[in-house]
Specification:
This protein has one domain. It is α+β, with helices and mostly antiparallel strands. The protein has 5 helices and 8 strands, in the order αβαββαβββαβαβ. The longest helix has 23 residues. This is UPF0216 protein BTN85_1112.
Length: 147
């Protein structure tokens, strides 16, 4: 076995370890996301986590989201809204993707970004405010790129 093969094998091992660590970090995420409409139609809105936990959704948050999102899009806003953390972003920087999710973030933070309707980058103080307002309908998710 030459030196290059050994380095590649170690790299594969490191990738597997990283994937396992990310899976562990993200086990709090729901098995599947639900639309605002789906959650509004049930008496006890909740998500089932990948770790089989039951995560209750605060109905007051759903009412808040109803006021922000036009009714014709209730069936398109996927919840929870993911607040993405990645090493490729600057320290303390997070991303929210999706046209409706960014509309919600902009409304909650009372800001208007001109950069993009598809994604918005927010900083730690803004994340804290967003999580205070939408604790049960937002989740952190941890990402990485493997090369």
């Amino acid at each position: 076995m030459n030196r290059k093969d050994t380095n590649d094998r170690l790299s594969d091992r490191q990738k597997k370890l990283l994937i396992k660590q990310l899976r562990d970090l993200n086990k709090h995420l729901p098995k599947g996301r639900k639309t605002l409409k789906e959650l509004m139609e049930v008496d006890d809105p909740e998500f089932e986590g990948k770790d089989n936990s039951i995560q209750k959704v605060d109905e007051e948050e759903l009412k808040k989201l109803e006021k922000i999102v036009p009714s014709e899009f209730y069936d398109r806003l996927k919840l929870p809204i993911y607040i993405e953390a990645s090493r490729k972003f600057n320290r303390g920087t997070y991303r929210v993707k999706g046209k409706l999710a960014t509309k919600v973030v902009k409304s909650i933070l009372d800001k208007e970004w001109k950069v993009s309707d598809e994604e918005v980058f927010i900083y730690r103080p803004e994340v804290l405010k967003l999580r205070r307002e939408l604790k049960t309908t937002t989740r952190y998710t941890f990402l990485t790129e493997l090369h």
